[in-house]
UniProtKB/TrEMBL annotation, chains A, B:
SUPFAM superfamilies named among the record's database cross-references: GHMP Kinase, C-terminal domain, Ribosomal protein S5 domain 2-like
Name of the protein described by the UniProt record: Diphosphomevalonate decarboxylase
Record-stated family: Belongs to the diphosphomevalonate decarboxylase family.
Mvd1 C-terminal domain sequence ranges: 204-405
Length: 421, 421
């Protein structure tokens, strides 16, 4: 099977970003192949702040496929991992590592077992599309190790079978997942609309919202919506196609006003379909609603969108500002309404790209406490404060697609044992 | 103009119930005439617990039309009051009160002024369709005083022009507001589907939910939805017509399972359309969501609906149980999760038909504190307690339509001054 000693270990490590949809994916037309009922569009987030890193190792000494997530072994038996693994093995090619004297032939991959270790650089439980980044990284890194020659489009269709939105994590910048027409799903792939450098002013602030409620998984929720919501098919067939075209144009023209209007409207419509499901699904809570009101009031008072919001299957808000100045003003408003609970350090409450804090003129908690309330507009809602309702903020930006980490010190598995370091 | 002395006062007093829609009205096709985009169906609530009482007085000594609501004078200049007043005056007929020696001819009504006093036997601010009961009572009582001969259908079309859902308060029991086709609105009237005695087992429990948020008025919200929600027209044209037929059948057959499923689904879809509006409208809050979850979990665990819920343009829940036994069990579950804040008397926390408390075996706060948590089902959500999140509960039932109060001691205006007592 392989030349030289039979105790070698070959490894590859990859890093893959998360993404957040601005035109939402909600509903499958094929549960097994994960084929969606409509196209979706996402932005890829900076992997420095939100990404999955995965190391895959192969060795003739491994007696079974094994996986560790964030240091803890998890079963690999699930359909989703298995179908990705099977698809990648089919495409595997000859690998030769002259330096290590390792040679694996195409057909060997069917018999060789792998060890996989994955790590998210953000809390998995925070509901920040960890499965999208994780599955994309799983597929991307396996493909690298197994010398798969196919392009990102093909890999995206494999990642899709692991977790639908994972296919959009195969590229940086702005990504479209085309639903496709083929019953086998061959044309249900992700394509890049524009790289992150096309529109690099955008700033993203994520509010991780405290929640005690256990949430409906998106897999279950989506299935319930398809089966019971009388509005879902109308959304998928009549509303989304037009929005996809408008969103592509807004991205092409860097038209923030249109981008923001479409992003907010589509987030709200996705949650409307959730509410129209039986039993109804509530992903947003009162804090989510207050964040929306804060942005809507600001946008109305300025007459043109200053920021966009979007919410996935959970209460966390992903806010998008057109530039650093607007992001600074947005962060001021957010911190006025959602200050950290007492005795919290500002630097652990606002994480990620901390330069936005400087942009907002905020160096310490004293500066936060001194923030004036946002100007009250005609509707005369006084701005209330809700300390503790947001767990923390992550400041970030658009980011690049998957990449191989060649620095071996970043590998998550030991090169000698093939077990987590 | 009138025979005898010129200082006489003639009065009439009426009482009109509130109603709660089970298939919702949301969206007008004509703002001025208040013509809806779809039919709706409501149940009329017992006027003993939730109703408006209105006294209308006429006298040649009155120099202008005046109105008092809950003891406070309010301007009558609004379009809605004015159009109702104008329409009723057009239909006014000769009135003769031989005992008092008063004779008013048809044409006199155009010149005579009225005093109107109205009172709601429930908090106006609680968001319990006070305008529906109020406008219906305004029209009904004016019509009685002015000896209007037209039937309730005609009166309902006048009340509709004051406040859309007011037309449904013109009957007891189960009421349908047919949207009509006529551009002038002549066929947009309410009809009774069945009287309250047709299905008199139903018990209604209203949870008045505490809220600090100022809500979007239904007039504004509805207009925004018509203008911006891509889902509203689909709901109105494609979803509601079928639901109306199914709901009529469920009512005809006293089929609680279908009645409950349709009621819950339609409430959720109305709120979904609100969320699909730009800017989005949130009427329900976390407490509303928790009440829905409580009912949904119970229904699922029993395999068949035990209770229905519906929410209007606010966070209050209107819960419908098929009979007193189920209502008692529902009240137990509600009080377990939403106990009164400390030092509250049970008798001021659960008002209306207190016999439901006895049905639930609850005599005092001690009994409430001793309630066991509802059995935990497979999904293993522990039942949490949220004291203070509900302001109070009102237990009631279906009720009858408007009626004249002949007991003069119940009049809200003095028979000698024509001013509030």
């Amino acid at each position: 099977m392989a030349s030289g000693t039979e105790s070698w270990i070959l490894m590859a490590t990859g890093r893959t970003p998360t993404n957040i949809a601005v035109i939402k994916y909600w509903g499958k037309r094929d549960e097994a192949l994960i084929l969606p009922v409509n196209d979706s569009i996402s932005v890829t987030l900076d992997p420095d702040h939100l990404s999955a890193t995965t190391t895959v190792a192969v060795s003739p000494t491994f007696d079974r496929d094994r996986m560790w997530l964030n240091g803890k072994e998890i079963p690999l038996s699930g359909d989703r991992f298995q179908s990705c693994l099977r698809e990648i093995r089919k495409l595997a090619d000859d690998v030769e590592d002259e330096k290590k004297g390792i040679r694996i032939r195409k057909d060997d991959w069917q018999k060789l077992h792998v060890h996989i270790a994955s790590y998210n650089n953000f809390p998995t439980a925070a509901g920040l599309a960890s499965s999208a980044a994780g599955l994309a990284c799983f597929v991307f890194t396996l493909a690298k190790l197994m010398n798969v020659k196919e392009d990102c489009g093909k890999l995206s269709s494999i990642a899709r079978q692991g977790s639908g939105s994972a296919c959009r994590s195969m590229y940086g910048g702005f990504v479209k997942w085309t639903m496709g027409k083929d019953a086998c799903g061959s044309d249900s792939i992700a394509v890049q609309l524009a790289s992150e450098s096309h529109w690099n002013d955008l700033v993203i602030i994520i509010a991780v919202v405290s929640s005690k409620q256990k949430e409906t998984s998106s897999t279950t929720g989506m299935r319930d919506s398809v089966e019971t919501s009388p509005l879902l098919q109308h959304r998928a067939q009549t509303v989304v196609p037009g929005r996809i075209l408008q969103m592509e144009e807004a991205i092409r023209n860097r038209d923030f006003a249109s981008f923001a209007r479409l992003t907010c409207a589509d987030s709200n419509q996705f949650h409307a379909v959730c509410l129209d499901t039986s039993p109804p699904i509530f992903y947003m809570n009162d804090t989510s609603h207050r964040i929306i009101s804060l942005v809507e009031r600001w946008n109305r008072s300025e007459g043109t969108p200053q920021a966009a919001y979007t919410f996935d299957a959970g209460p966390n808000a992903v806010l998008i500002a057109p530039n650093r100045k607007s992001a600074g003003l947005l962060l001021q408003r957010l911190l006025f309404c959602f200050p950290p609970p007492a005795d919290n350090e500002l630097t652990s409450y606002v994480i990620g790209d901390k330069s936005i804090l400087h942009e907002a003129g905020l160096q310490s908690m004293k500066d936060v406490e001194a923030l004036p309330p946002p100007p009250v507009s005609k509707d005369k809602y006084p701005s209330q404060k809700f300390p503790g309702k947001v767990s923390y903020f992550i400041c970030t930006r658009l980011g690049s697609g998957p990449r191989v980490l060649t620095d071996e010190s970043l590998a998550l598995l030991s090169p000698t044992t093939g077990l987590p370091k």
